Amino acid sequence: MRMVDIIEKKRNGEELTNEEIRFFVNGYTKGDIPDYQVSALMMAIYFKDMTERERADLTMAMVESGDKIDLSQIEGVKVDKHSTGGVGDTTTLSLAAMVAACGVPVAKMSGRGLGHTGGTIDKLEAIEGFHVELSNDQFVKQVNDIKMAVIGQSGNLTPADKKLYALRDVTGTVPSIPLIASSIMSKKIAAGADAIVLDVKTGDGAFMKTIEESEALAHAMVKIGNNVGRKTMAIISDMSQPLGYAIGNALEVKEAIDTLKGEGPEDLQELCYTLGSQMVVVGGKAVTIEEARTMLEGVVQSGEALEIFKKFIAAQGGDPSVVDDPSLLPQAKYKIDVAAKETGYISKMEADDIGIAAMLLGAGRATKESTIDLSVGLVLQKKVGDAVAIGDTLVTIHTNDLDIEKVIQKLYAHIIISADKVEAPELIKKVITE
Ligand code: URA
Ligand code: CA
Q1: Same-domain pairing of 315 and 336
Q2: What is the pLDDT of residues 194-224, one digit of tens each?
Q3: Who lines ligand 1 at CB under 6 A?
Q4: How many domains does the chain have?
Q5: What distance in Å separates the CA atoms of residue 199 and residue 275, rounded to the nearest whole number?
Q6: Distance 186 CA to ligand 2 centre (A)
Q7: Are 262 and 180 part of one and the same domain?
């Protein structure tokens, strides 16, 4: 087989065979095929697209390019959730404990974040003593015992995706639906998921800015999952403004705890129930989405979800008393209110820029080497659609440094107040079940 023939075939808009797809994925991973040929193929795929069959084959070729996590010793259907990423997205922590309380095992591999705030692991490390270094046996045992565990990235998962993504990044071929969809799905499958629920964000703060692009990506991923034997569902949710109120690591842990008590911000609470319903259904613990939702609301009201979260923290070395007393989480020295300069309605809170403001405070990493201050961040006091009077607090800044003029300027520039009444954006734009 020759790489140049594969490139020409795709350039001419033809369908590649599974053998051809495996040839280039394996050859590139091993270093036998040079960057320039794979770049040309990525560009051909960008223009000519891939069929559903090719997308499924590409996904599995990437899964098989490296290690796979073996979760077969965990009883039940292992369901994983993936979010395409947003600002202040605290969902994972509350959602995991809620679905675990419904009997769906949550065996999660998570990363540190490079973005506005830390990733799930950074957030959890805001809890004194918490660690994610579990052996495989400990991980499996903990999920079987209490239905929930989170470990850090381990093993050499999907090396093909790592190389291809780095190449796409510098060749203008990232925004291709078949390439993005196979990249995301390969990582979830290699991490051991039997079933997958996807939260595809849309809007200013999202990777996909328009509803059309987000929908195309969601459909592509759901198709791939179902074609390779992993039950997959998706939703499309709003990311034109940050999710919930808190943006920052310890602040988001507190918000997750509030949500587990049923006292979270309305949007975050709703997102947890919507995604959770899909997870409980694909996890085989309910037949309908409505039945699953009733179960989730039940475990929140009864306190069972919160109880699992406490056991999970304790099992991984953390101090579970933070759940009853969130003031034990790291606290910033200063709380500074940013007041509205006009009266009217909040018409925009641009997620991306508000996220950057939180990062400037030290809540996120500007580069891989940056360290995070777990205590700092922003707490929104208003959301889009809310009425506001001059002097009302828009945002409270939690900071350890009083040199925050740039942060304040950024907040004023990206929180827009209009004279006319504005409707709050719809949170759940679409639910995709097949
Ligand atoms: N995120 C991924 O994991 N892969 C892509 O290709 C794009 C975004
Ligand atoms: Ca939040």
Answers
A1: no
A2: 999 999 999 987 888 899 999 999 999 999 9
A3: 165, 174, 179-180, 183-184
A4: 3
A5: 7
A6: 27
A7: yes
